[in-house]
Every structure is written in structure tokens, then in C-alpha cells.
Amino acid sequence: MNPLPEDMENTLTGSQSSHASVRDVHSINPTQLMARIESYEGREKKGISDVRRTFCLFVTFDLLFVTLLWIIELNVNGGIENTLEKEVVQYDYYSSYFDIFLLAVFRFKVLILAYAVCRLRHWWAIALTTAVTSAFLLAKVILSKLFSQGAFGYVLPIISFILAWIETWFLDFKVLPQEAEEENRLLIVQDASERAALIPGGLSDGQFYSPPESEAGGK
Prior knowledge:
75% of the residues lie in helices and 0% in strands. It has helices at 6-26, 30-45, 50-76, 80-89, 98-117, 124-143, 152-197, 215-218.
């Protein structure tokens, strides 16, 4: 027997796969669909997704870590009170680290307000904070005299720069795509449940059968 042509084989394969997909759709248990919908709705009721909560925690870590480094720098350079007065009250752009601390506060307020309070699903807020941070730190490193003040002249600008870009990467490649994927799954499950509700009693695999040949046709 001659083998079937490739086009005919592809047609038969596609037909079988389409029948299998139809069978899968109609054999969905409505109870399982409702359970999935309730689980997705439960996530929505929590108000904030797990990955977004992790992002907000990292933003908080950013502020606390920069604050800790700044306090250590104040203590190392002659005591907290004296150095604090010198860097805050007698602020000098070319030698003070106070503006780097304020930059961390700026990132914290904008990102928490945008992604925790307002729950934005866009990257414009993180783009703003990262652009401002990068531009300010580059200008400060070029124009200031931080490198002549010891190790903290290197550590604070570099740490602030790295943390800002880690936040951008985490939001753009983790938070927003994962939340969009979960939302699409919810829409798919809801659509399948609506279709299943239109079918009284649902359909099972046993309802897909070929009618038996009649006696007249068999003879």
C-alpha cells in the first residue's frame, strides 16, 4: 500500500487535534472552573500580588540600606551630631552625602505611592525615578569631590545607582509580566466557565460517538 501524501497526513493530524481540543473544552468540570475563578478572585481581593509585595519590600530595603550607610558615614567622619550639622545645615553639593539620602527617599515615596497605593501597571513611575537617580548621581560623581573623602565617596553613589536599576529590572521583567499573565489566565477561565454554563449538564467524552451503522447500510 502506498503511503499517504504529506498533505493528507497533516490534514488528518490537524483534524484529530481539533477534535481532541473540542473534547477537552466540553469535558471541563464546571466545579473545577468555579474553584479556579474563586482562587483568582481571592488573589484580587488581597489587593496586591505577591510579586508586587516583594517589589515594595525591595524598595523599602533600598531606603533603609542607603540610610544605614549614610548614618555610618556620619559616625565615621567625626560623630553624628557634628557631621549631620555640616552635611544638612551647612549643605554643600560638592561634599555632602545628604542629597544621596534624599534621592533614596524620593525613590521610596514615588514607587510606593505609584505601585503600592495607586497600584499602577505601567513603567513610567520607575522610569522617572531611575532617570532622575542616574542623572543626579552621574552629575554628582563628575562635579563633586566625593572620591577624596574615603571609601564612602565610592560606596554610596554606586550602591544607589545599582539599587535603582535593580528595581527597574524587577518591575519590568517580573512584576508587570507576571501580573498580566495572571490576568489573562483569569479571563480565559471565566470565558470557559461562561461557555460551560450554556451547556446544560455539560458534555462528557461519552457524548462524542459515531452512530452505529444501520442494518441496511451494513448489508
